[in-house]
Specification:
Strands 3-2-1-4-5-9-15 form a 7-stranded parallel β-sheet, sandwiched between helices. A 3-stranded antiparallel β-sheet has the order 7-6-8, with no helix packed on it. It has a 3-stranded mixed β-sheet with strand order 16-13-18. The protein has 10 helices and 19 strands. By secondary structure, the chain is α/β, with parallel strands linked by helices. The mean pLDDT is about 95. It is globular, with a radius of gyration of 20 Å. Helix 3 links the parallel strand 4 and strand 5.
Length: about 350
């Protein structure tokens, strides 16, 4: 089949391209090569793919890129928590207007096939929590006054008791806590509206958890936490960890994420809806930083817990991968230890600052 991969020159998208090409599919890439991310076409672009250098918000370019396409893997997006709220227009433009432009082009092309959307665990906000007295509860956003006092754990919203974090399933309520999260949820909602009006189309929203691995950009505030720590270690600096380092996340290797895209596009029965893409093995942010430092060797600086916080961040969010295994046959294969060791020695991509 012929697959269009938007954002196919990026960190995750380029691995999706490689995985699809290795599986024998024809791949066409649509990527804007934004100067904030690329200094030109990356050297790792797969020569087996066809490349269209254009923005997903350019309707004419998207229409041309869709000619003859059977399926779509929509990876193009602005990612990360960003710098501050001043980024809001850029996030909405790249993520939501880009998705709307793609969906309009699919509509005009009378597309009937599978679409994979790169969504994110950030749509959940805080993860799933259980109170000994009240069962499953949904803590509200953490307050600055509590974070300033180093009270990082969210309490039960009903009785104030300590709660226990649990793996979050796809059925959990969505509760985006920052601009990036809001745009990712909007992408999902736009796709749901599209599916309701187009017979024969399915959209699998893959809710990626904390993706890491080769080709991550370095030295940019828009990268994930693993990339920020890896960049610090490469400079000879200690990774600086907010709060107390006890934040729990699910770190999933980019090769596994790319394989999840292949599974969603080729499963015997197309899945329409959201799926967690995760390893199923949560680790704290401090554990992740320590694993990277260990992989760098005995002379590497040790992680430093510096306190502080980012108000839009959440305390714990990690996933149950059971539904993805059941519906599309996806299971993560790269272990945390092997993945972090390989990432410590992998080449990162230099991000280009905007002028």
């Amino acid at each position: 089949m012929r697959v269009l991969v938007t954002g196919g020159a990026g960190f995750i998208g380029s691995h999706v391209v490689d995985t699809l090409a290795e599986a024998g599919h024809e791949v066409r890439v649509l990527d804007a090569l934004l100067p904030s991310v690329h200094a030109g076409a990356p050297e790792f672009c797969n020569p087996a793919a066809e490349y269209v250098w254009a923005d997903v918000t350019d309707g004419d370019a998207v229409a041309r890129a869709l000619v003859g396409v059977d399926m779509v893997s929509h990876q193009a997006a602005m990612v990360g928590l960003g710098v501050d709220f001043d980024d809001v227009v850029d996030y909405v433009h790249h993520n939501d207007t880009g998705t709307a432009t793609l969906l309009r082009a699919l509509h005009r092309n009378a597309f009937r096939g599978r679409v994979v959307l790169a969504s994110s665990m950030v749509v959940y906000g805080e993860g799933r929590y259980s109170c000994p007295r009240h069962g499953v509860v949904a803590p509200g956003p953490r307050r600055a006054v509590d974070l300033d006092a180093r009270r990082y754990e969210p309490p039960c919203p009903r009785c104030g008791a300590a709660v226990r974090p649990e793996p979050v399933p796809e059925s959990a309520p969505v509760d985006p806590r920052n601009v990036y999260a809001a745009t990712k949820l909007q992408q999902e909602l736009l796709c749901r509206a599209f599916v309701r009006e187009h017979d024969g189309v399915t959209v699998t929203a893959l809710r990626y958890h904390n993706v890491y691995g080769p080709r991550m950009p370095r030295d940019t505030p828009y990268a994930g936490v693993a990339s920020l720590f890896r960049s610090a270690l490469a400079r000879g600096d200690a990774p600086r960890i907010f709060e107390d380092g006890g934040q729990r996340r699910d770190f999933v290797h980019v090769r596994d994420v790319a394989h999840a895209n292949l599974c969603a596009l080729t499963a015997d029965v197309a899945y329409d809806g959201a799926l967690n893409v995760a390893s199923g093995e949560p680790h704290t942010v401090l554990e992740m930083a320590a694993a990277l430092a260990d992989a760098f060797g005995a002379g590497a600086p040790r992680p430093e817990v510096v306190g502080g916080y980012r108000l839009g961040d959440v305390r714990h969010v990690f996933a149950s991968p059971a539904r993805a295994a059941d519906r599309i046959g996806f299971r993560a294969e790269v272990s945390f230890a092997d993945g972090m060791h390989g990432f410590a020695h992998a080449r990162q991509r230099t991000a280009v600052a905007t002028s």
